[in-house]
C-alpha cells in the first residue's frame, strides 16, 4: 500500500483582532523547546504570518487524520502562549500586510518577484504519495492532470482577500498563479522529458532552483513521491484526510493505467487552465468542468465522477467507507469557502469568522 504524507500551511493570527501576526520565529522557537522537540515537524514559510507542518508517511488514513489533528493542536498550543492562534485558512479574511522572512532564499524571492512575493500570504495543502520510480511518477503526473481542478474545488477555502469577498471560492489559487512556474502542465511522456524541462526552467535564470517548480503536481524534490500541490489548506482536518485519500486513489489508478498501456488524456494546458479557473471561482457552489468531457457539469456530478474513477483503488486500500463518509459531509456542509461565507452571513463580522476558524482548527 502506498504511503501518504501531508504538508499544511497555517495562518498565525491575533486572538483578539483576528489579524495576521508575524510570529513564525517565536512559534518555531516554542515548538523547538517543547518536550521531545518538534524541529522535524514545523518550519517557516515565505511569510512570517505563517507556519507549516509535515506529517510522517502513513498508510492508514485514520492515522493520518489523527496526526493532522495532533499537529494542528500543537501549533495552536505554541501560538497561544504568544497571544495568537492558528487558522487553517488559505487567505486572511481581514486586511493583511505580509512580512517576508529574513532568510537568504526569502529575500531573493522578494528582490526578484516584487509584489508577487510580497503579497503572497496564501496557505496550501500538499499531499505526497509514494511511487517506485521517477518513470512511474511521471506516468502518474501525466494521467492525473484532468482531475486536479476537482481537488481544488473541493478544498476551496479562501473566499476573502484584504477584507473583501473576492467572488471566488479559492482566491488563493488566483494569487498563487502569479508565480511563473505555477499551474497545470503538458503531458511529459517520460521521466527524461520531465527532468529536461525542469532543468531548462531553472537554467532560464527566472527560478532560483528546483524547489521553485510550482506545478499543480510534481515529482518531489526531497522524497520519492508524487506531490500534489493544487489544494487550499482545508478548514476541517477531515477534509484534508479526504484529499489525501483521493490523491492516493488517483496515483494508484494512474499507475495501473500506465502499466496496462492506457495512454493519458491529451487535454491541452489551455483547457486545464480554464478548468482550474472554474474550480477556483465556483468551488462547489456552481458547475465545474468535467475532466472526461471538458464541458460544464454540476459540481456533485463531477465529484461523483472522481469517486467512480478511483473506486477500485479505494476498495483495495480499504478507503471506500471513509471516502464516502467524508464526501457526504463535504457535499452536505460545504467546503471551507462555504463555511466562511455562512459564518459572515450569521455574524456580519470577519473577525468573528476568523475566531470561529481558529476554534475549528484547534478542535
User: Given this structure, which CATH class is correct?
Assistant: Alpha Beta
- Report the portion of residues in β strands: 5-15%
Helix content: 40-55%
The count of DSSP E runs of length 2 or more, i.e. the number of strands, is: 11
Q: What structural class do helix, strand and pairing data support?
A: alpha+beta
Q: What is the overall silhouette?
A: globular
Overall pLDDT metric: 97
The rounded Rg comes to 19 Å
Largest sheet: 7 strands, antiparallel
Spell out the helices and strands N to C. Answer: EHEEHEHHEHHEEHHEEHHEEHHHH
Description:
One of its GO terms (molecular function) is ligase activity. Its EC number is 6.3.2.2. Belongs to the glutamate--cysteine ligase type 2 family. YbdK subfamily. ATP-dependent carboxylate-amine ligase which exhibits weak glutamate--cysteine ligase activity. The protein is 49% helix and 14% strand. It has 363 residues and is of the alpha+beta class. It has one domain (4-355): Creatine Kinase, Chain A, domain 2. The strands form three sheets. Strands 1, 2, 3, 4, 5, 8 and 9 form a seven-stranded antiparallel beta sheet that branches. Strands 6-7 form a two-stranded antiparallel ribbon. β6 (160-161) and β7 form a beta hairpin. The model has no long low-confidence stretch (mean pLDDT 97).
